[in-house]
């Protein structure tokens, strides 16, 4: 993560950037706002109890594989990519990779974003993202930096989220494709299934030297540029709904939720963009309901993670910027002020708080389930590695997933 960056350092005038999300949401009137389906207390509890179970230590599970120095282009960076890829492969999600080489202050480096989509044919996507690279330091001991909050923990949250919700997504997909879609609390599952879940792991977020417009967010800049110029085929549902301009992959994104600098105790989370104040408030409400139901452990003094959305803060430069510039709605979930250990060797496992990580896992599970109107039923399996009946033919995948 870079240091805090205000609009004034951006090449575009600040008022123009503030207007962009509004202008874009007017163009995508069929996207926002979405009806947010609030789960009952019983369903809330069921979602928190889905497999995988609560973490038992800050180094258990995924973090065991992520907490290594993993700067872009390094052997460890490739190892982490392989680990994430194998986790999603076992869940049966569609994978896209975007390998490319870019010039950096220390020469050309190979980068690779990893993109996972539950249903690559769905016309709309809720996107959650984090960066998986760690900051590069050339000499010992700084080159042992593992970036626990920056952003190994957020990546682990996303892996946990995919594992927990995949059985629900598959179950709903099975009902829809077999003509057994349910009407749940007035919601038509077939219609709700038009929005799928996509998870992006960005490479090259960190500056190789000092944060500048060209030495930072390598992966996010590459992906936003690529998706802006990748047009959807005429057969895509969004193409049929619009006349001009021809929709691109960017148009399939409802909102991009970027996680960064999380996992330590007592973060302060702010809302940065007016068009997603309502989503920020939903996430804050999820946290509040989980606390009220006693479904998360909250240490004394940690109740106020989410600051009132009206206490808006200036934009922080991060992977969302190139998407924001292209009109994508953004929810930036980042600790502000940054963790005390930021870009310091102390940002290791000892910087992570187990109660805070469990709390994030549960907030994200419930928030995402409610956004996608995913409701656990008595048949919901809790096992991992259940490929289930959901599958797409290779022919179908080629149609919309080229990036
Ligand atoms: Zn960083």
Describe, in plain words, how this protein is organized in 3D.
This is Peptide hydrolase. Residues 1-29 form the signal peptide. Belongs to the peptidase M28 family. The chain has a single domain (7-401), classed as Aminopeptidase. It contains twelve helices and eight strands. Helix 9 crosses helix 11 (354-371). It is globular and about 60 Å long. The longest helix has 30 residues, at 148-177. It has 403 residues and is of the alpha/beta class. The strands form two sheets. The protein has a six-stranded mixed β-sheet with strand order 1-2-6-3-7-8, with helices on both faces. Strand 1 (94-104) and strand 2 form a beta hairpin. The model is unreliable at 1-30 and 381-403 (pLDDT under 50).
Concise description?
With 403 residues, the chain is of the alpha/beta class.
Domain module tally: 1
Helix content: 25-40%
Bound molecules: zinc ion
Give the beta-strand count.
8
- Would you tell me which CATH topology applies? Aminopeptidase
What separation lies between the terminal Cα atoms?
26 Å
> How are strands sequenced across the largest beta sheet?
1-2-6-3-7-8
What's the gyration radius in Å? 20 Å
- CATH architectural designation: 3-Layer(aba) Sandwich
Family: Belongs to the peptidase M28 family.
GO molecular function, one term: zinc ion binding
Keywords: Acyltransferase, Hydrolase, Metal-binding, Protease, Signal, Transferase, Zinc
Protein name: Peptide hydrolase
């Amino acid at each position: 993560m870079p240091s805090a960056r205000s609009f004034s350092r951006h090449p575009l005038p600040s008022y123009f950037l503030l207007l962009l999300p509004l202008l874009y949401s007017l163009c995508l009137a069929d996207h926002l706002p979405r009806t947010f389906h609030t789960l009952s207390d019983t369903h809330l509890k069921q979602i928190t109890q889905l497999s995988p179970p609560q973490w038992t230590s800050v180094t258990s599970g995924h973090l065991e594989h992520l907490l290594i120095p993993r700067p872009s282009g390094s052997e460890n960076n490739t190892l982490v990519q392989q680990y994430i890829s194998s986790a999603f492969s076992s869940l049966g999600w569609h994978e896209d990779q975007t390998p490319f080489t870019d010039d950096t202050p220390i020469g050309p480096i190979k980068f690779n974003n990893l993109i996972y989509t539950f249903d690559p044919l769905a016309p709309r996507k809720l996107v959650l993202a984090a960066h998986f690279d760690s900051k590069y330091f050339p000499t010992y001991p700084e080159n042992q930096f593992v970036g626990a909050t920056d952003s190994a923990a957020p990546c682990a949250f996303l892996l946990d989220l995919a594992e927990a919700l995949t059985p629900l997504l598959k179950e709903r997909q099975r009902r829809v494709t077999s003509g057994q879609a349910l009407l749940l609390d007035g919601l038509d599952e077939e219609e709700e299934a038009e929005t799928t879940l996509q998870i992006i792991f960005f490479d090259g977020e960190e500056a190789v030297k000092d944060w500048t417009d060209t030495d930072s967010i390598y992966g996010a800049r590459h992906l936003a540029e690529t998706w802006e110029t990748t047009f959807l085929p005429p057969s895509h549902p969004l193409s049929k709904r619009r006349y001009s301009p021809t929709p691109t992959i960017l148009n399939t994104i409802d909102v991009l939720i970027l996680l960064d600098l999380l996992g330590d105790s007592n973060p302060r989370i702010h809302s940065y963009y007016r068009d997603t104040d309502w989503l920020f408030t939903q996430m804050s409400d999820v946290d509040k309901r989980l606390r009220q139901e006693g479904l998360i452990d909250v240490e004394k003094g940690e109740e106020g993670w989410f600051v009132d959305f009206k206490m808006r803060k200036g934009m922080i430069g991060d992977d969302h910027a190139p998407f924001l510039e292209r009109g994508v709605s953004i929810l930036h979930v980042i600790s502000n002020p940054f963790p005390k250990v930021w870009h310091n060797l102390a940002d290791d496992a000892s910087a992570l708080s187990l109660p805070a990580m469990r709390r994030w896992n549960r907030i994200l599970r419930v928030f995402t389930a409610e956004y996608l109107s995913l409701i656990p039923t008595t048949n919901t399996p809790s096992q991992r590695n259940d490929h289930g009946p959901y599958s797409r033919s290779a022919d179908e995948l080629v149609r919309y997933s080229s990036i």
